[in-house]
Amino acid sequence: MVNYLVFLTILIGIYVLFSLGLNLQWGFTGLINFGHIGFMTIGAYTTVVLSKKGFPLILSVIMGMGLAALLGLLIGISTLKLREDYLGIVTIGVSELLRLIANNEEWLTNGPSGVQSYPLPLEDLDPNFISKLIMIVLLNAISLFALWLLWSSFKKQWQENKEIEKKSYQPRKPLSIIIFGVIGVALVLLVDINGTIAIFNYNYKVGLMLLNLLILTIVYIALELLVNSPWGRILKAIREDEEIPKALGKNVFWYKLQAFMLGGGIAGLAGSFYAWQLTTVFPTNFEPLITFNAWTMIMLGGAGSNAGSILGVIIFWAYDSLTRFVIPQLEIINIAQLGAFRGMTIGLILMLLMIWRPQGILGRKEELSLGR
């Protein structure tokens, strides 16, 4: 159970990175990207191929992020001046093209056989007792930051809810805020306790979990600083009505391109961790469904909210794990029907959320861009 929760924590961290990149593109800038998995593909294959050829891991990751950002530049230059639906069509086409290249160009990616036996971060680390204590302190610091983040986000939502109640003179019952707040806190504490136990039984996956959480924290803080800066406010203005920043003399195309490239680079970083988690990379690991799962997570947590992206990913994978193990025990449906049932249920939850709270759990209704 401990090892499975470590695996799940790494997976959540990877998807949070992936979703943060997509949220920057769509949630903050309004750019529709249905092929976000293409950036992850570039990041994953670049990292493993270069590291296998002897490049340092950190340089391989930087190259993967750089090539993913370059892909964003190439797509953006050709499509960002067109209508938004063209961008969605082009991105999903490019992502499928990259997957087909990975599947057929055996000289580069080893084709369907996949890339195997590549260097992994911290795989040779054998920490002593002091090192393990330092790891525990680091894990607890990250957990405390996550708890503070959840508290501040839900407190903000509660206050906004009260303001709406005063303006409308109608009592509001923010039950969703309470429920998902409790779920979020419980899951963070579970990760912290489980991670502490896992550190005393250290293996490669535990080291990868800590590295992933550390990098995720750094990326999150950097993104928060960016989206709350004048640069981020221009992105929001573009999302709402790009004619306004144009009238103020802003180069809207350049800002869109920056957001698209940066979101792609973050997805490339997620691809590196994805490859390290899998330990063997196959073209089938990069299906379009991953992109649409990320869209589900962002809409669940709240578009235009980095904290919402984290919460959406946590809830999605908590639901996935619970239904994967609990439903078979109830013997309501057989194993063959389980996948379809789980997919149908998450779709129904998303539909109800769009009716009940279209801005997502931590999203702001006044910033909603779904219906533009």
Describe this protein's structure.
The termini are far apart. This protein is mainly α and 372 residues long. It has one domain (2-367). The chain is 77% helix and 1% strand. The model has no long low-confidence stretch (mean pLDDT 85). It has 14 helices and two strands, in the order αααααβααααααβααα.
Task: Describe the secondary structure blueprint for this structure.
Elements: H1 2-28, H2 37-52, H3 57-79, H4 84-104, H5 106-109, E1 115-116, H6 129-168, H7 175-200, H8 204-227, H9 230-241, H10 243-247, H11 252-278, E2 280-281, H12 289-301, H13 306-330, H14 335-356
Antiparallel strand pairs: 1-2
Structural class: mainly alpha
**How many structural units, i.e. domains?**
1
Strand content: under 5%
CA-CA gap between termini: 45 Å
Low-confidence stretches: none
What is the string of helix and strand elements?
HHHHHEHHHHHHEHHH
Helical residue percent band: over 70%
Instruction: Specify the overall morphology.
Output: globular
- Mean pLDDT equals 85
- How many β-strand runs? 2
Quick one: biggest sheet?
A: 2 strands, antiparallel
Q: Specify Rg, calculated over alpha carbons.
A: 21 Å
The count of helical stretches stands at: 14
Q: Order of strands side by side in the largest beta sheet?
A: 1-2
